[in-house]
Each structure stands twice: as C-alpha cells, then as structure tokens.
Specification:
CATH topology of the largest domain: Neuraminidase
CATH architecture of the largest domain: 6 Propeller
Structural class: mainly beta
Radius of gyration: 20 Å
Helix content: under 10%
Number of helices: 1
Order of helices and strands: HEEEEEEEEEEEEEEEEEEEEEEEEE
Number of domains: 2
Distance between the termini: 54 Å
Length: about 325
Amino acid sequence: MNMNAWSRIVAVAALALAVFASANLTAAEIPTVKWSRIPTANSPSARSYPAMAYDAVSKKVVLFGGYNGVYLNDTWTFDGTNWTQVATSLAPPVRTNATMAFDFVAKKIVLFGGYNGSNYLGDTWLWDGSTSTWTKAAPTVSPKPATGPMVFTDPLNRRADVYGGFDGRFYDLTQYQWTGTDWTQLHPNTVPFARSSAAVGTDFVRKSTVLFAGLGDVNPYNTWTWDGSNWTQQSPPVQPPGTRYGSSAAYDPRLKHVLVFGGAIGGVPQNDTWAWAGNNWIQLVPTASPAAREGFGMAYDAAIGHIVIFGGQAGTTFLGDTWGLTP
C-alpha cells in the first residue's frame, strides 16, 4: 500500500472518529433542568448523612437516621408530597453515614454500617415496605464495620451490594452482595482504590453502576463503573472538579443518566449537578439549585418521576429542606 492510500485511510478513520464523538456528544445532551423546593406540611428534622432509598414495594422514599448534634434513628417515608414519620416497634440503633439500597430480589431495602459517635457499625437491617417494619438480619458472613460504605443495587441481578467504607483506621476495598439472608464476598479482578463516602448510582438501562470520588488514602479522584462482575476505571475527558465527598448520586430514567449533586471539597460545600453519559461527565446548569451541601439523602422517586434530595450540612448548619429535579 502506498503512502497516499494509507494517508487517505487514516484521514477517513479520523473523520469517522470525529463524527462518532460528535454523535456521542449530541446524544448525551440533556434538556434544561430545574431543582424546585418541595413544600411539605411535615418533615424530618434538619440533619446530615441520613440513609435514603426508594422502596419499590410501598412506592415511597424511605429515610433513616443521620446526625444533627445528636445521633438519630427515626424512620420517615415520603410519598411525593409529604413526609410521614413511621413508628416502629423495632428500629436500627442510632447512627449516621450508613447507606442503603433496594434489593429487587428480596423486595426489601438493605441498610448497612454507619457510626454512632463511639463505634463503627457492621450490622445489617432490612426494611419491608409492605409492613413498614425493620428486621435485624443475622448473616453468618458480613462486611467489616464501617462508616460511609457504598451500598447500591447491582445492575445485573438487582441485588444489594456494598463496597468499601472506613473502619476508623483504614479505608476498605472489599465488596459483598446480599443473598437475602447472608452476605457473600465478591472477588472482582479489578477494584477501585479503597474509599468511603463516594457518590454511587446504578443505570439499569446500560446495566452499569458508576462510582465517583469520596475519601481515601490513595487518590480517590476518579471514576469507576461496575458491570455486575468487574470494575473498570474510566478515563473521562471531564470530571466534576475537586476530590469531593458526601455527594450523592441517582439514576434518572427520564434523562437516561446517573446524576451527581453537591458534596464537599476540602470542607467547602458544593451545589453543582453533573450527569454521567457513559464515557464522560457533563455539567448541567439548572435554572435553580438547592444551597450547597454535603451529606444529604438522594433517591429517584419513581412514583412521582423525579429525583428527590433531603437535608445535608453546610459548614456547621444542618439542613432540613426537600428538593426535586424537574425538566
């Protein structure tokens, strides 16, 4: 093959790549969005680092615990309009920075970990939305006690997985999956650097979980995706700025992306909104946004069709407002 022919092939390939990249960028564009405060007659008290997840059985968002000067263990549900405190005969003990996710096989929310002011916690609790009750699980195998573990719904089999956390001395990089009665340790070939308090959200259409940033001894300023069997470190041209922690993520099926909001960078709270487009981060520019914050609850509320956030912390101020993301 002569050099002229080879040059033409290279030029055509480069043009095709440019067109492909342009097509990806166009496909990834997201309509203008707006954060709107949701006025509620009742509401949980202001707090930071509660656990929050959508319960597909009761079709309500569930919020548990957190911290506002005292460690909390109250349970609340949100029906899209109002918060209702649920009186339960049994509840997990007080804690902050626990996390939880819905297990579609067990049809229960799985809560793990946290910190109660004295101890790092390693107990597992199950929320049954059909009876509005908590049950303490008795697994024979369990992740190490930790604060800020990342509990998320596995994109492949829709079970609850837990990754990482901080045990008071070390950041963890082990991963477990809930079987319905027990935790089983997973052994992927590649895992993210050890961390806690990262943003994690599952895209059920692409069957991919994205994890971003957090706290860790080794640089956590990176993006990873989980496909149900292995982690892959991504190399997006753009990432949300700063090694942030205490941000949250959720998948919005209308926008077809996992969205990340807020968090803190070096103690400074943020209020930016980003979307993971499968190969890059895209900053959204909402026409209105909540005040900057870290450690808030965030979940996609399928019953009302948009992402909801509650609470958080800005410096020493605890927040108790509810917001929804709408086009």
